[in-house]
C-alpha cells in the first residue's frame, strides 16, 4: 500500500477498502492537523476538524473522480469544514452561547496542566508570528498556510479555494507583506 499513488488508494477507498483509507490517513493526518492548528491555534479543535475531514471523505468515497491532485481534493474538504466551523462559531457568539460543559472542563484541565516554565520556553518570536498570522484576513491566512506550511502548489490551492491561480498568488503576496509589516521590528537586524 505504501508504494501506491494517492489516487489509486482513493479509488480503492471508493470500493470500501479500509486498508487504503488507513494509508491515506497515515499520509495526510499530520498535514491536516498542522493546517487546522495554523488556522485556529487549538490542538483539540484541529484533531476534531481533521477527523471530520476524513469522515467526510469516507462518506463521499464512491463519488471520487481523480480529476486533480489528491491533496487538492482533501484540502477542499478541509477548507469547507473550516468555514463551517467558523460559521457555527459566529452563530454561537451572536446567540450568546459561551461554551458547553465539555469546553469548560477542557479549559480547566488545560489550566491545571499549565506551567510557567513551559510558557517561558515558548519564544517571543513564535508568539508574535502566530499573532501576526491570526491578524491576516481569513482567505490570505488560508492561502499562506496551504502554500508556505503545507507546500501545496498554487494550482492545487486555486482548486481548493475555487479561484484563479493569480488570485491565490496575490493573496499569498499580500499575506507575506502584512506579516513582514507586523514583524518588521523582529526582522530588523
Strand percentage: under 5%
Low-confidence stretches: 97-102, 117-122
CATH topology of the largest domain: Rna Polymerase Sigma Factor, Chain: A
The CATH architecture of the largest domain can be named as Orthogonal Bundle
Helix coverage percent of residues? over 70%
Instruction: Specify Rg, calculated over alpha carbons.
Output: 19 Å
What is the typical, i.e. mean, pLDDT? Answer: 84
User: What structural class is derived from the secondary structure elements?
Assistant: mainly alpha
* Ends apart, CA distance between termini: 49 Å
According to DSSP, the number of beta strands is 0
Shape: globular
* SSE order: HHHHHHHHHHH
CATH class of the largest domain: Mainly Alpha
How many domains? The number is: 2
Full CATH superfamily name of the largest domain: RNA polymerase sigma factor, region 2, helix turn helix motif
Q: Mind describing the biggest β-sheet?
A: none
Helical run tally? 11
Report on this model:
- It is a single chain.
- The protein is mainly α and 189 residues long.
- The chain has two domains: 1-114, Orthogonal Bundle (Rna Polymerase Sigma Factor, Chain: A); 117-189, Winged helix-like DNA-binding domain superfamily/Winged helix DNA-binding domain (Arc Repressor Mutant, subunit A, Orthogonal Bundle), CATH 1.10.10.10.
- The protein is 78% helix and 0% strand.
- It contains eleven helices and no strands.
- Helix 2 (18-40) crosses helix 4 (70-95), helix 3 packs across helix 4 (70-95) and helix 9 packs across helix 10.
- It is globular and about 55 Å long.
